[in-house]
Amino acid sequence: MSQKEYVVGIDLGTTNSAISWMKPDGNVEILPNSEGKRTTPSIVSFTKDGEIIVGEPAKRQAVLNSDKTVRSIKRYMGTDHIVKIDDKSYSPQQISAFILKKLVKDAEDYLNGKITKAVITVPAYFNDSQRQATKEAGEIAGLEVLRIINEPTAASIAFGLDKSNSGDKKIVVYDLGGGTFDVSILEIGDDIIEVISTSGNNKLGGDDFDQKLIDFLAEEFKKEHNVDLREDKQAIQRLKEAAEGAKIELSSKLETEINLPFITVANGQPLHLEKKITRSKFEDLVGDLIQATRIPMENALKDSGLSVNEIDEVLLVGGSTRMPAVSKLVKEFFGKEPNKGVNPDEAVSLGAAVQGAVMTGNTDKDIVLVDVTPLSLGVEVKGGLVQNIIPRNSKIPIKKSQTFTTAVDFQPEVEVRIFQGERTLAKDNALLGSFKLTGIAPAPRGVPQIEVTFDIDSNGIVNVSAKDLGTNKEQSMVVTGRQKLNSDEIQKMIKDAQEYEEQDKRKREEIELKNQAEDLAYQMEKLLNENKDKISEDVKSNLELKIKDLRDALAEDNIGKIKILVDEIKQESMKIGQQIYGQNGQNGQGPQDPQGPNDYQDPQQPQQ
After folding, report:
1. Nearest CA to 522 among 397, 398, 407, 372?
2. φ/ψ (deg, to 5) at 552
3. Which of 11, 106, 187, 194 is catalytic?
4. Is 175 a catalytic residue?
5. Does 533 reside within a domain?
């Protein structure tokens, strides 16, 4: 008799992970691991015998086997980071897959069935390659990944399970986990959960709070004994565990004592670490990290177009939100007490399980998720500008197209360079990838029509295509594995976009002026050449001289001179019109306006 197959929801966390399923009665249950715990440490260790152990057993032996123990691998998802153990190398996807296999195996033993499908969660601010890497980890673990959904969205599903929460509500999910921070603003209805805006920091979490305490303890010990514990691998591992335990304890107590006997040896003498830490001292150490969550809150609220008075509920998700100072900051910012109705460690996994059940028809619930993309996406155009095609916080899935044209006569190909970010100039944003569309039919510049389409699926993974509407030739790519953004860079993009908004505006105006000047010179030369017999010599020579001056000004990047010459050439060009259409004008019939040049943008010219 074949085993029954199950679909689960997995919160693949930086510090701890959890797995859930929806029972036939409609209730959602956290599946315990083989140790009987409801969450599993996201830790992988490799023993001397070559065995791979995961979770609590790996955590227990981490002190004596620190060189072969891997923590917080989630922070490296989507990067080329490699974990080297002896003569073998492991990618972040592989390490994550070991964690997923442990979760699945323990859950299968508990259910006495087979788990084949899963919905896996990621931070809302994960970029394209991080999402793809998470999906790959699931596939490596032998799972069919039904969907990648954002952690705050999953938490809001869990919140919505409470029947008392019926009716439309605008909620904030403040998600401070072990390695990442997200804040999302959502609208929850009876059958739909719609993300309005999101912001965050992929390099801020409980690990950073622990590190502040580790550094403090290490410095205090160094002052007393002139020994730096951070240079001792076993000592630092014990210190990490003690700091994490103290942080957790100080969420419910005003004081804790760290006692680590025989932490190290100096001059043949064993040394011990004993230190009392008060909550106020710890909050002083981590105060800057807690305050760092304020900027993403401000960004998310601003992008949502809502005021704090329009927010109905604030949910705290992630173990780090148990710190009283975090709850206090959130209460001060939104002006209301955070809702304690969801378990911050379990809500994300529970919500993912509901979504998995909905997608496989294992429930009569009908929940529609409408998520957003965290950063703007666009292509580079003439002058090094970025033409945004999909603005940040656009609802996904989404598909948008825009038509561009060539920059030079008889251009045989264009390079489509894809960028993500909020700055005006391409070089200030993150390059996601590029491809060339070749075989464009010979034509003067401005004639070919090239349609560029961005298609973001429900997992937030980006597909880009370019099509020559004249020849129907098409080229496309999936934007994966090339994204090198980290959270600091993301935050810098948004901050820079605000700080340098005026500077960017001036640069854009200058580039657009130069593009206009180049086009004007080109059109005037063409007009002179095609109507040489109808234009008097003095008008022709005067215009040619001004065109030459304009090209010289462009070469010198003399913006002031370019502005003057553009105006002068426009004025001078009116004399051409009078001479060409003079006869019509005498008959009392004004010349009809010809159809203006197309309003397409010029993509970046291919590198020669």
Report:
1. 407
2. -65, -40
3. 11
4. yes
5. no
Reading across the β-sheet that carries 398-404, which strands appear in turn? Answer: 398-404, 450-456, 462-468, 474-479
**169-176 and 313-317 as β-strands: parallel, antiparallel, unpaired?**
parallel
Residues 326 and 260 both lie in one domain: no
Catalytic residue chosen out of the listed positions 106, 136, 175, 194? 175
Q: What's the number of domains the chain is made of?
A: 3
Q: Which of 106, 136, 151, 428 is the catalytic position?
A: 151
User: What are φ and ψ of residue 600, in 5° steps?
Assistant: -75, 155
Mean pLDDT of the 20-43 span: 94
Q: Verify that 450 and 333 share a domain, yes or no.
A: no
The 3-class secondary structure across 308-366, one letter per residue, is: HHHCCEEEEECHHHHCHHHHHHHHHHHCCCCECCCCCCCHHHHHHHHHHHHHCCCCCCC
Q: Would you call 11 a catalytic residue per the annotation? A: yes
The per-residue pLDDT for range 459-471, each reduced to its tens digit, is 777 889 999 998 8
Domain that holds residue 238: 206-289
In a domain, 602, yes or no: no
Active-site residue 74, yes or no? yes
Query: Measured between alpha carbons, how far is 68 from 467 in angstroms, rounded to an integer?
Result: 50
Q: Which residue, of 501, 529, 550, is where some domain finishes?
A: 501
Please indicate whether residue 467 is annotated as part of the active site.
no
Distance CA 8, CA 517 (A): 60
Is residue 589 one of the residues assigned to a domain? no
Q: Rg of the Cα trace of the chain?
A: 30
Helix (H, G, I), strand (E, B), or coil: what is residue 590? Answer: coil
Amino acid at 552: D
Catalytic residue chosen out of the listed positions 59, 74, 247, 514? 74
Asked whether residue 51 falls in the same domain as residue 167, the answer is: yes
> Of the candidates 289, 307, 331, which is a domain's last residue?
289
At 480, is the pLDDT very low, low, confident or very high (cuts 50, 70, 90)?
Answer: low
Model confidence over 387-419: pLDDT tens digits?
999 988 888 889 999 999 988 888 888 889 988
